[in-house]
Amino acid sequence: MPLSRFSDPARRWVDAPTRTVSAAGTTFAYRQLGPAKGVPVLLLNHWGANLDNFDPRIVDGLAAGRPVVALDYRGVGASGGKAPLTVAEMATDTVATLHALGFDRVDIVGFSLGGFVAQEVALRAPAMVRRLILAGTGPAGGTGIERVGAVSWPLILKGLLTFKDPKTYLFFTASETSRRAAEAFLGRLKERSSDRDTAVGMGTFLRQLKAIKAWGRQAPQDLARIACPVLVANGDRDLMVPSPNSSDMARRLPNAELVFYEDAGHGGIFQYHEAFTRKAVAFLDA
Prior knowledge:
By secondary structure, the protein is of the alpha/beta class. It has one domain (19-285): Alpha/Beta hydrolase fold, catalytic domain (Rossmann fold, 3-Layer(aba) Sandwich), CATH 3.40.50.1820. The chain contains ten helices and eight strands. Strands 1-2-4-3-5-6-7-8 form an eight-stranded mixed sheet, with helices on both faces. The longest helix is centred in the C-terminal third of the chain and has 16 residues, at 202-217. The mean pLDDT is 96.
């Protein structure tokens, strides 16, 4: 791994500059943070998310002891091209981008759609993945995944009608505690005041939804082939990617640990960001 890319790292995620790298016939936007040495941690995000949607507290916590790299998928944010219609294509792009960055071995944290992509990368390039964290996500063909759109559209509309960010309803439960956590999380996402990423357009949003639906309809994969250690984390009341999918993955993965967060939805790792970050750091350090 060429460490020159980490020679002058930002100290906080909100200050990390947006950079680009050429791979797979286009350019991919990324940000990096943390020290120059160590196995890089690759962050892969959710449906409709750009670089500004990574939780600064989680990224800063991970980057305290290791290099961290977050990517925009093809067609997302400042990345070029058109958003792929399959998770497999996103995984191909991810592997190509890692090679272009000079990384031959990484840890991956995949949230939601990012967890789908992370599984595909681990199956396609097992030698490249040292440890894997799958959060708020599920396996190919998992229960309810093909209905992500049907579940999400009413909650997105509710957000518009109540003048709230739809993630309030998509990622968090209706309890007072969870809604307070939603406000705190959404506030953290606004901390970056300059060099913000390009907004995700509706065309990209819809193309990614097609990829998610296809993943939900896909035949189950042989997760026993993912031999690396895996941490599976989710809220116990995930509506978008139903929580039983996390239990299913943990049973099928040969070297997995499962963590559920109480009274938490799809964004359980954001509601419990401090506990999740401690758990993730300990898992990656093991």
